[in-house]
Amino acid sequence: MTGQFEMDIQVGQVIPPLQRTIRLTDMVAYAGDRPARDRLGGGPMTEGVAIVEVAESDLGVTNQTILGLQTQAITRALADAGLTLRDVDGLATSGISRFSATQLADWLGIQPQWTDSTFAGGSAYEMYVARAAQAIRAGQATTVVISFASNQRSARSRSLAGVVEDHTPEAQFETPYAPLYPISYYAMVAQRYLHEFGATREQLAEIAVAAREWALLNPKAFRYGAGPLSVEEVLAAPMVSSPLTVADCCLVTDGGGAVVLTSSERARDLRATPVEVLGYGERTTNTSMTAVDDLTVSGAAGAVTDALARAGLTIDDIDVFEVYDSFTITVALTLEALGVCGRGEALDFIQGGRIRPGGQLPLNTNGGGLSYCHPGQYGVLLLVEAVRQLRGECGPRQVAGARTALAHGTGGIFSTHATVILGVDR
Amino acid sequence: MNLPPVPAPDAVTAGWWEATREHRLTVQRCTACSRPQHPPRSICIHCGRTDALRLDDAAGTGVVDSFTVVHRAPFPDLEVPYVIARVRLDEGVICLTRLTNADPDSWRIGDRVRVDWIDLPDGRALPVFVPAPAEPPR
Asked: If you average pLDDT over residues A135-162, what whole number do you get?
């Protein structure tokens, strides 16, 4: 009976494309071949801001510190971009300490004129892209670094109970029952979803199976070389919080990444192919396990709708999808929010290899949080893979001719939802 | 049943926890718009009033909205498996809770439940839910 969330979805506010305020740059090649793009007036709008480089830190089990891993990712990205820390005047990060961006600035020895440490779990990095684009367009920053890293596997810092703050309502009304956080919430979503739509755990397992297939093509993936995963293996894996087994849950690894943004204009003078920020959107829905009335509806739909509207694209225009796969069920709800299939149809939709390598819907092409890397706030690595796909750098897992990519982050317990749409002119 | 410690009530939740001492389950309701909410807050999430909230006794019955059987203990000394659930009270709000007094694997979404209490060392009690007979014919 929480009204607010339902209302949010029903009203489905559509933000008009920012045609007047955004320079179309010289991406005329986009106007091209697709009816949807023609209908929308000749191509996607860019925000006038581009990602100029991305990098990963070491991944897996690193025995490094958080700031050490951050340093790896940031210095690798800047070096590849032909930039130095002296060029960086904007910084966005979280998960380091209470003063995350401040801490990182101090560590790097810089004094940025813009920072953001919005704490929104795994979707924060997609939110940072939006805020960084706005800061760059407003002239508050010229070159922004977005980064994240965690050493949660080597440091054994992950707890099944999650982090509970005693002064929150959840500490009084939820934690006393000892739910696993966040697993038990996603488990209740899965239970409700399977019940409501008559779907099966076997069908849900396909999401983990497909992620493994992609990971087998990615030498950086934690499960690279682990061999394929079968539906039977997913179902037979140890149960954690029913109906989710260990194999329905993302990995717990170290890892991190960095993303460097600047104006599209400045990006053209740099080394690598700029990847334009075409659109973004977000929704924030809940911290408690009881606020959302219908567990099978995710706030992702609003975020995706806004991002597509800003980009002047439809979902059919997207070539590659990188969506947060904290759990198999996360992907099912997100696919429905994306509008690639109807409500309750995701698990039918993905059968027959549709999201596996070579399938019609290239999804989580690095192997995802399920089989590649999951350092806790995986959102930054969604952006890393989206950019690499758009640059054609992905070797055997490359999606041929990918020119548009959608990255969608989900944080907390389906709490925060943020979408970024990226495009490249090639 | 081993449970984690329950934090002390605060200015907003004191009345709700006080009622549990008498095994009364309450739901906060706004007297201005008459809609319920849970957990108790200092503002009505439906109409925004801050001066019209009161705690009403709930019927103590509801239906299982969803549940999960937890097989890995998040704290030491916690016995598994146990059942975490969202119960939709007949008043309309959803509570996070435990389902007890039945085989963990026997629960189904839509099951009717009624409140039961686990007494806490400080005199408060924690509401959990147990199987209830199906609704009597009207």
From this structure: 95
| pLDDT (tens digit per residue) in B65-83 | 999 999 999 988 899 999 9
Q: In angstroms, rounded to a whole number, what is the distance separating the alpha carbons of residues A82 and A270?
A: 7
Strands A143-150 vs A90-93: parallel, antiparallel or unpaired: parallel
Q: Are the C-beta atoms of B66 and B109 separated by less than 8 Å?
A: yes
The two beta strands, A90-93 and A114-116, are parallel
- Tens digits of residue pLDDT in A226-243: 999 999 999 999 999 999
- A182 inside 8 A of chain B by CB: no
Q: Give bridge partners of residue A281 from the DSSP assignment.
A: A419
Contact A245, A55 (CB under 8 A): no
ipTM comes to: 0.97
**From the candidates A30, A181, A280, A324, which is the catalytic residue?**
A324
Q: Are A281 and A307 in contact (CB under 8 A)?
A: yes
Q: Which two tokens stand for residue A105?
A: 């600035």
Chain B residue numbers with beta carbons less than 8 Å from the beta carbon of A177 are 3, 84, 96-98, 126, 128
pTM for this one? Answer: 0.92
Q: How far is A293 from chain B (nearest CA, A)?
A: 8
